[in-house]
Request: fold
Amino acid sequence: MGGAKSSIGYVRTEMLGEKPPPPTSVGVIGWMRQNLFSDILSTILTLLSLYLVYSVLAGVLPWMLKGIWNASSLNECREIIAESYGEGTEAACWAVIRERFWQLMYGFYPSDMYWRPNLALILLFAALAPVLFDKAPRWMLVFSVAVPFIGPWLLWGGTIWTPVAAFLGFVIGFFVNRYVARATGTLAGLLAGVVAAIVWWLFLAEAFSDALASVLPLAIETVESRKFGGFMLAITLGITGIALSFPLGIVLALGRQSNLVIVKSLCVGFIEFIRGVPLITLLFVASVLLNYFLPKGTEFDIILRVMIMITLFSAAYMAEVIRGGLAALPRGQYEAADALGLTYWQAQRLIIMPQALKISIPSIVSTFIGLFKDTTLVSIIGLADPIGWAKLIQSNAEWNGIVWELYGFIAFVFFIFCYLMSRYSMYLERKLQTGH
Amino acid sequence: MTTATEPSKGSFRLSMLLYDTRYRSTTIQVVALLGFMLAAAWLINNVIENLAASGKTFDYRFLWEPAGYDINQRLIEYNSQSTHARAAVVGLLNTLLVAAMGCVTATVIGVFLGILRLSRNWIVSRLAAVYVEAFRNVPVLLWIVLVMAIAIEFFPAPRDFKGENPAATMKFFDMVAITNRGVYLPRPQFANGFGDVVLFGGAWSLNLNVVAVLAVLIASFWISGRIRRWADRVQEETGDRPATWHMRLAVIVLPTAVLLWALGFHFQYPVLKGFGFKGGIHMRNSLLALWLALSLYTGAFIAENVRAGIMAISKGQTEAAAALGLRPGKIMRLVILPQALRVIVPPLISQYLNLTKNSSLAIAVGYMDITGTLGGITLNQTGREMETLLLLMLCYLIISLSISAVMNYYNEKTKLKER
Reply:
């Protein structure tokens, strides 16, 4: 055999050149053959789907594009449509959105103060940027600290010293904690800090802000809660709910996982109770029952009451989601943290939580999305969120009978918010991916 | 040998409660319990003071007083002279009705779309994805209100069905009338039979015909199950599986059919009389809107669960089954589905739970579920916020806990038996 030239005539000695793949299996045609017309069933499905898409678009697109933007009532709209496109043409009446846009967005919020919620929203994005994206400069964290105090002040107004006093509570708590912790120990320091902050907020903060307000009256006009409405209300409720329920959920999840029997059963009881009842019953509690549970004569704001309930509600769900993350961590992680000699809180902060939260990102974000969608339920207890406004507008004589335009617009805005949130969670998952 | 020295008895100091790990957890728990009890006592004290100040008491006697309001969609006998308690039961049954209907349709929609999303056909999977995203990212309340508004504004009025050349006609071979006052369906009836039996002194009545049909059906299914087990046994002993499908079909269909024929089973169809339809089952728009919206919304979530469940089964399972010589249908039925179901069913049950809780949004369209009766009109008429809301929450808690119990039972049963 060796390397000698073969004497068998029909054995090929050099490779054939590569031929191009058949034109039906590459490019657009190849893709279509593979993904749209691979067999008879697939072909039928493709044709059916195309027909479906066509008929929906053929119905909706002309209806949307022919829409009327300038009219003051539904009847006027219909007249204009009949005039310009002929009798019997179906077309949208976008005029309702144009006329009621500001109400759908801000409710009864005074129109000369729209800059305040707008500014609050811009500041909020500035505050979120360093938390959400690590490319944002670090100095923007200043916003993240300031906005929780500035934001509500911008929305509700009043003297600037109220948020300053609220902020000072945290500062005082922090320093007392530092001092006491150095003198005695961590746990005592924590307790002392919390007690000091609570004492400040309950007894001293008001006097402090009143005193400063009389010396230096820096204030903007107060806006009452019942003037809040539209998407502004939904976003306010959503953002506060998200911001507050996340830490509360972590605490509840840790409580449920802890081996302190009493703490654990308190947390389990709370979580199971909240998850067992619909949000609407809790909102009823907020609107008619909560005053019974507070000292006589306490009157506090319905929006605040609703916020508390929404926060508690989604904190229970958040706790379950985070508990799922905690349970998914291998035991070795807990044991390794113990072996390193970390204390409970150090282990949670440095080892357990970063991993558990990463595992549960998709579920956390869907809880947030659920919370934002659930803010629409406040329309049932009489707050004027977008759906409440839609009903108000519908009951108006001029716009009686309008359906698709109004609800379509509201659905579209909600869709944008929720879709962006779910996209962000996918981005975050990819970014934090450390597996192979 | 020295033994470990016991800590001397007198050395206990108060600070050890905080810094000694032996006592620390107890300290924390006692503090937590005290805090909880203090908070609870404070709240209860406030409640007592506030109730006293407004001259109210806490009792449930109002439940036995006449309700004085009407409920138009109901499963059991009820009139405005019935008690609040009965109104609450009517509401509870309405909740369960819409929840059961919603769970069935949502499952059908969800499984169908979940499979379509996994289709290799690009456009089909895209369309399913569009559906899922559209329904998941918009509040369910919006869907409910929207379907209700569409039903009221765009469905034909009963008068459109009149005349020589009507603007609207009845659907499905003249059996169903879809109007802006609701949907009229054929009502199943028995011409002869056992009649009703009255329980609890007239408070409840039970149709014996329905009971008889259900009993026969359950018995048939039980016998059919026995036949399947017999076939399993024969297969294990001999290797050949006897064909049983005709036997099982006959066992299930024949006795029920004979019984239905004997009882004179027929449908009463809705007919146009005067200004509206008479006869048949009247399903109001509120129920229709709630049912459709909840099904479409929850269906989108279930579709995602189904997709995730099927994708969780590794490809190796399919290939191994194929290597054993199983046909595609059997691969799905014997290998993929049993494993996928273990992943799908727990989130599916929690979607059922969500649907049941979301059915409380009925109050937005005026469907009288338990939130509408007990937490709505009864609350407003009697002014007993505390009692009604506590009872309402208790009802939902019981429903939720029973559904969770089912889920736990399933999880326990299908748990992988590991070493």
